């Protein structure tokens, strides 16, 4: 279970701190809530009922440096092949983004980077939807990597590339 002061990853909101656990009256029902503050937007507040298993399942512990390095290694050793069918690729990408599975996000980013480079070399354009999925997957992973590794978000791709080249 999570405690006040823990740093967590919440759904697609990114890295959050658990500020407190508080009781609130909603209608006539008193419930306990986790109060989350996103580190990227400390003016925002997210309330998660402590008895809502579905929402609680979206709260995950932040990875360690060792976990991040293993994730990078695992993704590099198990790439995804390009999905030619636009509809199938859209569904596949959307499901990975929604799941928040870090390994699958890494693999998705790698697949999209490879495709983008292939298209660039032939002077063709990368689909705007593929670009959107790439940016969203990067946002989800790079926020956490940046926080844990204590580096700037824009330095995360170089960190990953240097790790893969080892």
Description of the molecule:
With 166 residues, this protein is α+β, with helices and mostly antiparallel strands. It has a five-stranded antiparallel beta sheet with strand order 4-3-2-1-5. Helix 2 crosses helix 4. The longest helix has 22 residues. The radius of gyration is 18 Å and the shape is elongated. The two termini are 36 Å apart.
Structural features:
166 residues; five-stranded antiparallel beta sheet; 5 strands; alpha+beta; single chain
Give me the secondary-structure topology:
Blueprint (H helix, E strand, L loop, with lengths): L6 E4 L3 E13 L2 E10 L7 E4 L3 H4 L2 E3 L3 H12 L9 H14 L2 H20 L6 H22 L6 H10 L1
Secondary structure tally: strands: 5
Gross geometry: elongated
Mean pLDDT, all residues:
92
Helix coverage percent: 40-55%
Summing up helix and strand content along with how strands pair, one would put the structural category as: alpha+beta
SSE pattern: EEEEHEHHHHH
Radius of gyration: 18 Å
Distance between the termini: 36 Å
- Spatial order of the strands forming the largest sheet: 4-3-2-1-5
Which runs of at least 5 residues are low in confidence (pLDDT < 50)?
none
Number of helices: 6
Sheet of most strands: 5 strands, antiparallel
Proportion of residues in extended strands: 15-25%
Task: Give a brief rundown of this model.
The protein has 166 residues and is an alpha+beta fold.
């Amino acid at each position: 279970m999570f405690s006040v002061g823990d740093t967590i990853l919440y759904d697609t909101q990114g890295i959050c701190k658990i500020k407190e656990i508080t009781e609130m009256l909603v209608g006539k029902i008193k419930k306990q809530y986790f109060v989350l503050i996103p580190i990227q937007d400390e003016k925002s507040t997210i309330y998660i009922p402590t008895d809502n298993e579905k929402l609680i399942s979206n709260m995950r512990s932040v990875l360690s440096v060792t976990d991040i390095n293993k994730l990078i290694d695992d993704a590099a050793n198990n790439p995804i092949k390009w999905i030619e069918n636009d509809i199938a690729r859209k569904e596949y990408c959307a499901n990975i983004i929604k799941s928040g599975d870090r390994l699958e996000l890494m693999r998705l980013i790698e697949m999209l980077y490879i495709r983008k480079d292939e298209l660039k070399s032939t002077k063709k354009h990368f689909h705007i939807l593929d670009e959107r999925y790439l940016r969203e997957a990067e946002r989800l992973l790079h926020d956490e990597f940046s926080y844990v590794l204590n580096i700037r978000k824009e330095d995360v791709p170089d960190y990953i590339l240097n790790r893969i080249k080892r």
